[in-house]
Amino acid sequence: MTIHRWTWQSQLTFALAAGVIAILGLVPSFASDGVIERLTVLFIYVILAAMWNALAGYGGLVSIGNQLFFGLGAYATIRLADAGINPFAAMSLGAGIVAGLSWLLSLFMLHLRAGEFAIGMWVLASIAHLCVNLDPLIQGETGTSLIALNAYAIDARRVLIFWAALIGMVGLLALLFAVLRTPSGLAMQAIRDNEEAADSVGVNPMRTKRLFFVLAGFGTAVAGALWLAQVSAFQPKTYFSVQWTAYMIFMVLVGGLGRFEGAILGALIFFAAETWFADTGVWYLIGLGAAALLFSLLLPKGLWGWIATRTGVSLMPLGYRVHVDTQSETGR
Question: 225-238 burial by CB neighbour count: b if 16+ within 10 A, else e?
Fold first, then answer.
């Protein structure tokens, strides 16, 4: 009997992923402006799905207010850039500030359970929205623009934002994957399954949940800052809209709740649906809602959860596998 984590499928997946990332890094040298911009959007969607999945899928902290971090990430970037900081440096620094704020919020938010936590996050997002409206720089719902980006030529700016989104996505996925494979990652899943039982075997629930809460806040803030750089304009009602969390929930539900691969797959499905059907207006939104409902009823583990259950394949393994050598067992 042997215990291992990696399989040949997972090793092949990581080799292919490294190749895809290398090719993506070269995309600006041969792709059209439209392709570059759409891929930037895809990278942001992957970040959003992975961060919401980190909270809800692995920790059971279902939030309907993650637009709080998304909006604050963009707002912090606007504020720092207005103070004279380079806009790309402001994006990173702004996400760091939101991570610090997430730590402060965790001191009381993580004492809430289930529905209380979900609604509490939505209330916090609404309060943040109102507070940002009071900032004279933002001018209420009129909003403002990230005018510091005008220092860059439009072509150079498009490529820099693309690379920033690619680096952000790869870095955050790698960080989340590494954290999930540590004892803290296993502890978070134990808390999700039964917090009292996890506490009884020595897990520190509050410290573990705080780690994931801050990570999700930081990652979602990075996505908000990247979206701001992509569209340049900041209007509070757009960035603090609950639609962002609805998108995150859709991507994770369809791809696979609590599955690392599921969040990525869900983001790809949502991106494809948006690309092909967004022009249909209301029918597009109805279709998204219907798809989420059908997946919840028929495939509650999501598409990747269904595939993994039927095939036993794990392309990005987080836990351990026990392999029994049947020949050795038979010979004994």
Answer: bbbbbbbeebbbeb
One-letter amino acid identity for 91?
A: M
Higher pLDDT, 283 or 93: 93
Phi, psi of 320 (to 5 degrees): -110, 155
| Residue carrying structure tokens 């936590």 | 117
Torsions phi, psi for 322 (to 5 deg): -105, 120
The amino acid occupying position 312 is G
Whose structure tokens read 């700016």? 157
Tokens of 102: 């997430």
Give the DSSP letter string of 240-291.
T-THHHHHHHHHHHHH-TT-HHHHHHHHHHHHHHHHHHGGGTHHHHHHHHHH
Q: Which residues contact 167 (CB under 8 A, 6 or more apart)?
A: none
Cα gap 56→60, rounded to integer Å: 4
Angle between helices 33-52 and 205-231 (to 10 degrees): 160
Angle among Cα 186, 247, 15 to the nearest 5 degrees reads 55
Nearest to 176 by CA among 120, 222, 114: 222
36 vs 26: CA distance, rounded Å:
11
Q: Which residue has the tokens 């150079």?
A: 156
pLDDT tens figures, 7-62: 778 788 888 989 999 999 999 989 899 999 999 999 999 999 999 999 888 888 88
Residue 323 burial (10 A CB sphere; 0-12, 13-18, 19+): exposed
Report the alpha-carbon distance of residue 314 to residue 188 in Å, rounded. Answer: 19
- Taking 3-state DSSP, the helix, strand and coil percentages for the chain, each rounded to the nearest 5, stand at 80, 5, 20
